[in-house]
Amino acid sequence: REPSDYGVSLTPAASGIPEFTPSPVFTPDGRSMAVLSTRQGHPSIVELYDLASGRRRRLVADAFTRVENIPLGNFTNLARALAVSPDGTRLAFGAQKNHRHTLYVYDLRSDKLRRLELPGFQQVQQPAFSPDGRSVAFSGMKDSMTDIHVVDLETGGVTAVTSDPQDDQSPHFSPDGASIVYSSEVQ
Fold first, then answer.
1. What distance in Å separates the CA atoms of residue 48 and residue 2, rounded to the nearest whole number?
2. Contacts with 67 (C-beta within 8 Å, 6 or more apart), sequence order
3. Is the distance from CB of 58 to CB of 45 less than 8 angstroms?
4. Exposed (0-12), middle (13-18) or buried (19+): which is 44, by Cβ within 10 Å?
5. Helix (H, G, I), strand (E, B) or coil at 67
6. Alpha-carbon 21 to chain mean position
7. Going residue by residue through the chain (187 aa), what tens digit of pLDDT does each one get?
8. Long-range residue pairs from 174-179, CB within 8 A, at least 24 positions apart, any chain
9. Which residue, among 143, 186, 147, 149, has the nearest Cα to 163 in the 3D structure?
10. In this structure, are strands 112-116 and 121-129 parallel, antiparallel, or unpaired?
């Protein structure tokens, strides 16, 4: 059966050509949803959908000068690529520019994109804002090991949460911000 047999599409294809819109995240007020979209081909673009009107707003309009690729994972292991801050004003995502991966924070009010310098990381993905919005946890590959890290958005300081040979991914803060849960490859 088709997906439309189970519910209404929140992100209908505009041109009749199938579109891939992974990593949806709702804003805290529930009025909008940010997604990655292949509507314009590859690489994916970041869009904000107004759920009441169906209007799309492309974010990071100068993507090719600032961001070259936002990794989605792969079809068998799609990663959560986007995170919305608890106050709904910022969007975080890991992306690549000139073969360097880093974390970007997009201000939804001012349409400004901030690149956080995270030296030494081979990959940065799966961001999650802390409940107070002051930091972002992420899955980061460094020295060929994928661990969970937290970056302070004010100072840029990075703290390793895990440091082990397992593949640690998909971090998420507890509601009080005191703990982080994540998935880990267990042997």
1. 25
2. 60, 95, 96, 97, 104, 113
3. yes
4. buried
5. coil
6. 13
7. 887 788 877 777 767 677 777 788 999 999 999 988 877 766 778 889 899 998 988 887 665 566 766 766 555 556 678 999 999 999 999 887 777 788 999 999 998 889 998 988 988 999 999 999 999 999 999 988 999 999 999 999 999 999 999 999 999 999 999 999 999 987 7
8. 175/131, 176/131, 177/130, 177/131, 177/132
9. 147
10. unpaired
The candidate with the shortest Cα–Cα distance to 36, out of 86, 83, 76, is 83
Least Cα distance to 129 among 72, 70, 168, 175 occurs for: 175
Closest C-alpha to 167, from 181, 146, 137: 146
Among the listed residues 76, 67, 27, 26, the one whose alpha carbon sits nearest the alpha carbon of residue 45: 67
